[in-house]
């Protein structure tokens, strides 16, 4: 409870982790607010069905609040004038404000428990944060947004936050690296999916580093790092110790 | 959203662009061509002609191409679909046809071009109109282009969410040389452009439009001119598929004997992973292209057999890697296709 998990990928696509967390929390009965900036609803829905969860059903019973970034953006730009009572969550795009306050308000309103809600623990899931930088948000604004979300979701509502970011080792995108490094310092758990250092391989799609940041909560503790390799299949992902993939054994 | 990094002189990426459009015409899709460099009508006049007569056999029925086997050995399918095919068998009926053949030396007939609806956007003609949508700090050229695309999508019925009874078609969008100075964007000129986010915002909105409509889009960008690498990284994240063409013209690789038979390399930086967890991977990542008189082919880069100079190298095995990159399917239709991961 109250944990901030950072999903990070380098030289590979870490979105399988997002799909996993989405179906995991929905199955656990939590109320999920999913800020999906990069892909459409049907993409997540189809993958979630393979993992055994129906997003449309979850949306209908109020368990899932789905913000489809692509759709909001086109509605904002091409739609009619917005109603005064319902500002678009992606309002920073129109340039009137430079912070992500509208987005945060959207998150807060969706996760605040209403009367009659029986869900366990709220969860905020973001895919992916690096897109906000591409759309013109300043790194400070993005960090502020995450900070507000953490205070509101993790501390006040005792929920969890899971965020995906992209990073590259010798990336020239300094704003992105700034955001990623800052988030790493504040995370309780980091799942870092990387492509293999030795290059492309058919049986092992990458390696995942799991860093439990025990040093965050207790001063004397050291972070616990575990490394596994993985292979993605149609309906699940298999993890195994490095060098012990099924192809080798 | 297929993002193509242009080669230095733009020769080959233009060819790829034209193939995309030509395929659209032959498949009966509607076209939307946007350019700031040359008038779209000129582009449309120069599309390669499809090889309809000698490549297809009428008796084969619904799709398998009955091609003479020696033709099969030489000619390969073109561009933008990535799929490994095994070596060609002698009986070509087992060969699944996917796409069409084109003859580069001939132009497509005007009747064929006019059989589909072609919408065009030539920046310099559109400059007089004011954009009606909020520009959101985006370059005005891009804003106009987006508005034009959105108008076509909603008026011509490509919108996926619109309930409609008549039969839907697919819209193929081609945008040439995005990001170049001709569009009014200075991202190619300086390290810290004035509107750093114009290009990325444009791509995001375009992606949104593509996702909710039945359309596919190819963009060519002079990536070698973009100084700011951070923008290239962001752009890669925003695109479904990223392909780079590197031609050997003018570089030291032209004289390298390894690349003797080829005109350039194809770098596939990213492949779409839509509607699936899976990443279906191909065996090889090294691709090269060559432009023969009639055909443009993409093959696996392979070393010619290491023989001494006196022996001829006529027995090269051309692997039938008909490189077909995935192009359509960005819209609401979830076509089953292979997904590749990087």
UniProtKB/TrEMBL annotation, chain A:
Its main location: cytoplasm. It is found in: Cytoplasm; Nucleus. Keywords: Cytoplasm, Nucleus, tRNA processing. The keyword tRNA processing applies. One of its GO terms (biological process) is tRNA wobble uridine modification. Gene3D superfamilies: P-loop containing nucleotide triphosphate hydrolases. One of its GO terms (cellular component) is cytoplasm. Pathway: tRNA modification; 5-methoxycarbonylmethyl-2-thiouridine-tRNA biosynthesis. Belongs to the ELP6 family. This is Elongator complex protein 6. It comes from Platysteira castanea. The gene is Elp6.
From TrEMBL, chain B:
GO terms for cellular component: cytoplasm; elongator holoenzyme complex; transcription elongation factor complex. Keywords: Cytoplasm, Nucleus, tRNA processing. It comes from the Eukaryota. GO terms for biological process: tRNA wobble uridine modification. Pathway: tRNA modification; 5-methoxycarbonylmethyl-2-thiouridine-tRNA biosynthesis. Transmembrane segments: none annotated. It holds the Pfam family PAXNEB. It is found in: Cytoplasm; Nucleus. PANTHER family: ELONGATOR COMPLEX PROTEIN 4, PAX6 NEIGHBOR PROTEIN PAXNEB. Belongs to the ELP4 family. Component of the elongator complex which is required for multiple tRNA modifications, including mcm5U (5-methoxycarbonylmethyl uridine), mcm5s2U (5-methoxycarbonylmethyl-2-thiouridine), and ncm5U (5-carbamoylmethyl uridine). The elongator complex catalyzes the formation of carboxymethyluridine in the wobble base at position 34 in tRNAs. This is Elongator complex protein 4. It comes from Platysteira castanea. The lineage of its organism: Eukaryota, Metazoa, Chordata, Craniata, Vertebrata.
